[in-house]
Design brief:
Elements (H helix, E strand, L loop, with lengths): L5 E5 L4 H4 L9 E4 L6 E4 L1 H10 L2 H13 L6 E3 H12 L3 H11 L4 E10 L3 E10 L2 H7 L11 E4 L6 H10 L3 E2 L9 H8 L3 H11 L2 E3 L1 E6 L5 E3 L1 E5 L4 E5 L5 E4 L2 E2 L5 H11 L9 E4 L2 H6 L3 E8 L11 E5 L1
Parallel strand pairs: 8-14, 10-18, 16-17
Antiparallel strand pairs: 1-2, 1-5, 3-7, 4-6, 5-6, 7-15, 9-14, 10-11, 12-13, 17-18
Helix pairs in contact: 2-3, 2-7, 3-5, 6-10, 7-9
Length: 318
């Protein structure tokens, strides 16, 4: 991976420069950019952007943050464009158009007086990337808390369809973590993505689907499947009750970074007494007992050793 080259930036030309001496020691620094390896996604921001039709701008914000490897928050425009074209599959015209569309929303375009190694001082166009907290507060209508972010390899985050698919897939837990059942209609309400388009994104982003079944305790305390009648054209038969599927994305978990501090700011901005959604599925008996917002029909995940059918994911009605 190429090492980022730092340059010194001052927003006004200092008198020392005009006299031909060295730049001020207190000058700020920012990156010329580097070739990134992964893109870090925040699930709540991704879903909010899909619903607000700002997914192209948010994807570019993710990519600019990936290029800004030192975390300075500033990039030289020409260097950032070169990396966007080579690593993320943009054309220069598309990158320019999206940069103008997101100016004042996710970043600011401006100029700075910069000292480049080998070229000397001069004015250069720069991108000032907005902080995570500022972007989260922009989506405060949809985002009340940030969960753990995930990361996607840069080689997978190329092309319009693939980027939208990865933004959508960040809504689901990564493989290897416990997740709760959810119906396609509920996913559509949460993400704004239609059912058929969900299935297309599942294939592009490698989302895995697992079926879930409902069960109950009989009079002896044994677990038995919940059965229901299904009416066909010529006959009626019984089958085990299906719940929503469990979905897992192919993205990997990464460090939380600033999410804890941003969540504290988001909590302060929420109105007191705001209505909360009722929970229907619980991963442990402890969370079921402690929940103050439990739905009338709630389910508890059955441990692997207690399942009616080995290898099948089952939930017992509470």
């Amino acid at each position: 991976m190429a090492n980022p080259v730092a340059i010194i930036t001052v927003h006004e030309v200092p008198e020392a420069v005009k006299r031909g001496s060295s730049p001020a020691v207190s000058a700020k620094r920012h990156d010329r950019g580097a070739i990134p390896l992964v893109v870090k996604l925040y699930p709540e921001l991704s879903i909010a952007a899909l619903k607000a039709h700002l997914d192209k701008e948010l994807a570019l914000w993710y990519e600019l943050r990936a290029i800004n490897v030192t975390g300075s928050g500033r990039l030289v425009l020409n260097d950032a464009l070169a990396t966007l074209v080579s690593s993320f599959g943009y054309s220069r015209s598309t990158a320019y158009r999206l940069l103008r569309a997101g100016d004042g929303r996710f970043w600011e375009l401006g100029t700075s007086y910069s000292f480049r190694p080998g070229t000397g001082p001069g004015w250069h166009s720069v991108i000032e990337i907005y902080a995570l907290s500022r972007v989260a507060e922009r989506f405060s209508t949809y985002v009340h808390r940030l969960s753990q972010p995930v990361q996607v390899p840069v080689r997978e985050f190329r092309g319009r369809k693939a980027k939208r698919a990865w933004l959508y897939s960040s809504f689901f837990k990564p493989a290897g973590t416990k997740a709760k059942p959810i119906a396609r209609d509920s996913i559509m309400d949460a993400t704004g993505v239609e059912r058929r388009q969900q299935q297309r994104y599942d294939k592009v982003a490698g989302i895995k689907r697992v079926a879930n079944f409902a069960c109950r305790q009989d009079a002896q305390g044994n677990l038995v499947p919940i059965r229901h009648l299904v009416a066909g054209k010529s006959r009626v038969w019984e089958k085990d009750r299906r719940l929503g599927n469990t979905y897992h994305s192919a993205a990997l978990t990464t460090h939380r970074g600033m999410t804890k501090r941003v969540n504290a700011r988001l909590r302060r901005s929420l109105l007191k007494g705001e209505a909360r959604l009722q929970k229907r599925f619980f991963l442990s008996a402890k969370s079921l007992v402690r929940s103050a917002h439990r739905a009338e029909e709630s389910f508890l995940r059955v441990k692997a050793r207690d399942r009616v059918i080995v290898g099948r994911v089952e939930w017992c009605i509470a």
